[in-house]
Amino acid sequence: MLEKIKAISESVKNKIADAKGSAELNDLKVKYLGRNGEITALLKGLKNCSPEEKPSLGKHINALREQVERLISEREQILASNELDRKLQEEKIDVTLSVRDSAVGGLHPLTLARNELVDAFVGMGFEVKEGPEIELDFYNFQQLNIPKDHPSRDAQDTFYVDDNIVLRTQTSAVQARTMEKEKPPIRIVCPGKVYRLDDDATHSPMFQQIEGLVVDKGVNLCDLKGTLDEFAKKFFGEDTRTRFRPSYFPFTEPSVELDVSCFMCKGKGCRLCKGTGWIEVLGAGVVNPIVLKNCGIDPAEYSGFAFGIGIERCAMLKYGIPDMRILFENDVRFLRQYR
Ligand code: DAH
Fold first, then answer.
1. pTM of the predicted structure, to 2 decimals
2. Residue nearest ligand 1's atom 2 by CA
3. Which one of 201, 296, 301, 306 has the largest count of C-beta atoms within 10 Å of its C-beta?
4. What is the pLDDT of residues 181-202, one digit of tens each?
C-alpha cells in the first residue's frame, strides 16, 4: 500500500500541472478524491490492514489527500488567472481608436429661419401665439375687412373646405382671434403654415408666415417703422437700412411694404436686388379701425400696427436659395449645408 501511495504522490503532481482547463482538472479531482476515487479507495482499504500498520498508513494517505487537494486548488487559481488574462487580451477595447463618423441630424433651413425670425421679436417682448390651419372664413377674411366679394378671396387663390371654412390663406387670422379674446396691450407674433392655390419657383401651395400685431394706446406708424427696422438689423445684419413704400391691405390703413437695403451688394445694385439696391420683405400697416371695431376693441381708445412676413422668402434671401421648391424636396445633400 505504501508503494501505491508513493506512486500516486509522484504521478499526481505532473498530471495536475498538465490539466489544461477546469473540466480536465475536475476529472482529476473525481479520479483521486471522488467517491470511487483512488485515494478514497486507499482509505477504504485501510480496514484490511493490520492494526499496527493502520496509524502510519492512515497518516500517509491523509497527507496524500491534502497534497492532492492543495495541488488542485493551486492549479485552479492558475487556470482562473490564465483565463482572466486571455479575456483581457481578447476582449480589449482600444479607446484611442477614432470613431466612425455617424450621421448627425440638423435643423431644416426653414426651421432655422423661423426660429431666428421668432427670436428677433421675442427679444423685443413679443409673445408667440398659434391658431388653426383649417380656419373659419369669418376670421381669415370677414373680421379682417375682407368681405365675401373681395378679389383676394377668389376661388383661384383660396382652398375652400365649404362655404364658411377655408385653409387659412394668411396668419392674419390669428390677429382677429387674439383681439377678440384679449384686452390690449397686445404684442404677439404668430408663426404658422398658410395655404394658397399657387405653385412656381417663388410660390408654393403651402408656405409659412409670421404675423405680428401690437395694439395699445397711442401706437402709430413710427412704432411700426422702429420695430421693423430693429428686426431687419437683427435678421439681415447690423448695417441693414429699411424703407416703407405705400401699399394696400384691407386690414391696415395706411398700408406699407417694407424694403431692406440689399445685404449682398450693400445697396449698390446686384442680381439679388435686381439692380435696385433694395429687397422687398414684408407687408405691414396701421391696423384698420374697422378691424379693431369688428374684434371688439374701441378704435377711439386704442390703435395698433401689424405685419406679415413670409418665412420661405426670408430663408431664400438669407441663405441664397434660388427656387422655393428645393425647400420642400428635402434632398439631404441640400439640407446638410445648413447643419
Ligand atoms: N396677410 C398679408 C399677406 O398674406 C400680409 C400682411 C400684410 C399681414 C400687412 C399684416 C399686415 O398683418 O398688416 O399677404
1. 0.71
2. 308
3. 306
4. 999 999 999 999 999 998 887 7
